[in-house]
Design a protein that fits this description.
about 110 residues, alpha+beta, Arc Repressor Mutant, subunit A
Length: about 110
């Protein structure tokens, strides 16, 4: 049995739903243009969400936002086994396929 890595975005209300979607795109390594196409919004909207994420986390780049979110526990890495054991305590997992074969899961 193979296990994939999953990410749990649990911002505790710090980020809006749109900001969590953008954080998922950032975890996937998507550019502004790629994220805009994926979410059917304008690049300016993506830039607005990324700016809000940088401001809320006090970081100056997308890479720093991602690093900060992992370091502070706003984003956690789980194996499939961890996800199965903890699913009962999580409101809703929303899968977003990522480029490394795993998934991002957010509380939406």
């Amino acid at each position: 049995m193979t296990h994939s890595t999953v990410y749990l975005i649990d911002s505790g209300g710090l980020f809006s739903a749109a900001e969590r979607r953008e954080l998922s795109a950032m975890l996937d390594g998507l550019t502004v243009e790629q994220a805009a196409r994926k979410h059917f919004v304008s690049p300016d909207t993506v830039k607005t969400h990324r700016t809000a994420l940088r401001q809320k986390t006090g970081q100056h780049s997308s890479a720093a936002v991602v690093s900060y979110c992992f370091a502070t526990g706003l984003v956690k890495i789980f194996s499939d086994n961890d996800r199965n054991h903890q699913a009962a305590s999580i409101t809703a997992f929303v899968p977003v396929p990522n480029h490394v074969g795993g998934h991002c899961y957010g509380l939406y």
